[in-house]
Amino acid sequence: MTETAVENEQAEQVVQAPTSVVSDEQLVAMLVDRARNEGLQLTGEGGLLQQLTKRVLESALEGEITDHVGYEKHDPAGKNNGNSRNGTRAKTVLTDVGPVEVRVPRDTAGSFEPQIVKKRQRRLTGVDEMVLSLSAKGLTHGEIAAHLAEVYGAEVSKQTISTITDKVMDGMAEWQNRPLDRVYPVLFVDAINVKIRDGKVANRPIYVVMSVTVDGTRDIVGIWAGDGGEGAKYWLHVFTELKNRGLDDVLMLVCDGLKGLPEAVETVWPRTIVQTCVVHLLRNSFRYAARQDWDKVAKALKPVYTAPSEDAATERFLEFQESWGVKYPAIVKLWSDAWAEFVPFLSFDVEIRKVICSTNAIESVNARIRRAVRARGHFPNEAAALKCIYMALMSLDPTGKGRKRWTMRWKAPLNAFQIAFEGRLTPSNS
Question: How far apart, in whole angstroms, are the C-alpha atoms of residue 276 and residue 299?
């Protein structure tokens, strides 16, 4: 008896149904015990999981061919009925438990189209999902191929992996151009740099826009690859595109204080309040101060951004200027230039203040993007970079627990927005 025949016989014995009704747990225990007693490995090549997968797939294919030709195997009723079974052909498919060779039935008319394992299909869906998940974490195609070979014993070429990941491009184009809500309470905008090889490796900005919906959910509305450094001119292009996708009104937009950005926002959404991130202001302040003065400068600036009103903040800032203006005039100029975009949050109650005073909400998203980008090093072109970032964004919060926490966190602030911006978050505007 050949080795293949022995394996098939063992598999048939393993999956043979018990004569009495048993629970799923009991059935699993019986299969594992029998495999262990007969020296059959649970995993790996020729193991229990591979053989079970083989038998399940072949049984499903046999059921499909029976439905197609209209009679059971070896049933005399199928004789001279116009179409009949015509043997099988071997085919190896890559599954979650490794490569599995299955026998695919054929018919004499050549009209059988299997659905469980389709014609020319070499991978079951779980493998594609695995490749996309690994790619979203920043693994290169070579690293993914090595992982599949080491863990599953499957030889998958880089070209095959590229073909799998390229499937997301159609979905990405649809996602990037989807219609938006007419109004968002808050937009968080930021840009991160990635290395792209365009003749030579250079930093390119990737523009990211995240919204908070009227229902309190988080939504990444789009990503864009720009040229050169981050600039207000390109942000104007981004905002115009968002307006063309249906976004007519934004209550507040939170940014890192890029020069010219408020003017770009006003061009597209004249009523939008632009809020500069306080954390960015503090970080930029430290650039102009000696290291030994950082704690003192931070302590002196805290009364400014925690003031109960704009007037109180102005008084505290004048006190800071008197104490530190001579030594660090650049810090005074930094805050003076950003004052118009710094003070808006001081006009709102604490519920709104705590969610719009910084870009922390989008920083967690950027951190996930940076992990994926850092693992790749640099990208051959712009499309490859956007594909990687898109997959990283789609893999955020797979359990949904983060979305629930986010919605609960924004419940009180959105109620405050409804009061502060009466009429602009009504159902007729959303």
Answer: 20
